[in-house]
Design a protein that fits this description.
By secondary structure, this protein is an all-alpha fold. It is built from 16 helices and no strands. Helix 4 runs antiparallel to helix 5. The longest helix has 34 residues. It starts with a helix and ends in a 6-residue tail after the last helix.
């Protein structure tokens, strides 16, 4: 066993070597830090715009529409909730959902950048083409997280915040799913549609969240997400097979249309049941029937082996969601007029 004195001299003799190593590596570490924190170039700013998918509104629509459904439902159910309160909260959520969409799209591209480089449709995205480094992309994501968490704590009610936090882990988990499971649309749907509970929780006047009505709507929305996302995945199935990725499109294969027909019928059924539990009127049910019929009609004519047709079907998503939303709003207005409840104040 070495004595304390021998140990002391061993440490003392190695100290100059460690110091010299640190002295040589310090400039490179400082240079790397300076590069990481440098003012972004025009190319990087464009890359950040693309990472957020701000060139299209699809991601925002899929996150915002479920929240808007929820707000319209609580506006219908609770006569003491004013239209001004509902509209104000809708506007707040609209901008929050833009931020959520940006955050989700950014982490998706970061965790998928190696996959995107090998897929024809995505190989020209910002990270695969080198418009921004992976380190700078992570920094951009971290900035979004800090801003997003601060805004969530400032703008959401405690109940809505707690509900939203249940899916925060999915923001990071979802982009990894295609590497190890075929059912990535499920966590995507759980994540995208959580607003169905949040809108009501934020505006309820009696402190109660109507889970008996909202849970069927959530399940219906999940089935809707599975429908449009599975068809969307068929665009990349050939590349996914080559690089060993999994997807529900590959899993369902030639049975995709029958499976998605079943999920679409499930969507309509659960949406109708949730409306019945909330006491919704005829206008809402008519909207659900129209939305379901549009999905079914377009499913029947979509060739899943034609990427353009798959994209066309996917682009119907905001239309379908907005038809249901229009039905909820019109139903609430008609209900309030019939009952003599003020619309705005």
């Amino acid at each position: 066993m070495s004595s304390p004195v021998a140990s002391y001299f061993a440490i003392a003799s190695s100290a100059p070597v460690a110091f010299k190593s640190l002295k040589h590596s310090l400039p490179s570490k400082l240079s790397a830090l300076q590069s990481l924190l440098a003012v972004p170039t025009a190319t990087e700013l464009q890359a950040c715009w693309e990472l957020c998918r701000l060139q299209n509104g699809m991601g925002c629509a899929t996150v915002f529409i479920p929240v808007a459904w929820s707000i319209a439902m609580v506006y219908y159910a609770q006569a003491n909730l004013t239209g001004l309160e509902a509209l104000t909260r809708t506007l707040v959520y609209f901008f929050l959902c833009i931020g959520i969409k940006c955050l989700i799209m950014t982490i998706d591209d970061i965790l998928d950048y190696d996959i995107d480089a090998n897929v024809e449709r995505t190989k020209k995205r910002a990270l695969p083409r080198g418009a921004i480094s992976i380190e700078r992309a992570w920094l951009f994501f971290a900035m979004q997280v800090v801003a997003g968490v601060a805004l969530a704590y400032k703008t959401l009610s405690p109940d809505a915040l707690a509900i939203s936090m249940t899916v925060w882990p999915l923001y990071v988990l979802y982009p990894t799913c295609k590497r190890w499971m075929s059912f990535a649309p499920v966590p995507l749907g759980l994540m995208f549609n959580i607003g169905i509970f949040m809108g009501w929780a934020d505006l309820t006047k009696d402190g109660r969240v109507a889970f008996d009505a909202l849970l069927p709507i959530y399940i219906g929305a999940l089935l809707w997400t599975i429908t449009y996302e599975t068809v969307y995945q068929h665009q990349d199935k050939l590349d996914d097979v080559k690089i060993g990725m999994k997807s529900l499109a590959i899993f369902c294969d030639k049975y995709t249309i029958p499976v998605c027909t079943a999920t679409t019928i499930g969507f309509g059924t659960f949406m109708a049941y949730g409306g019945w539990m909330n006491g919704q009127g005829f206008i809402y049910y008519a909207a659900v029937v129209v939305a379901t019929a549009i999905l079914l009609k377009n499913l029947m004519v979509t060739d899943i082996d034609q990427p353009k047709q798959c994209m066309q079907f996917f682009l119907l998503t905001p239309t379908v969601g907005n038809i249901v939303l229009g039905g909820l709003v019109a139903d609430a207005v008609a209900h309030r007029v019939a009952e003599g409840i003020p619309l705005l104040l």
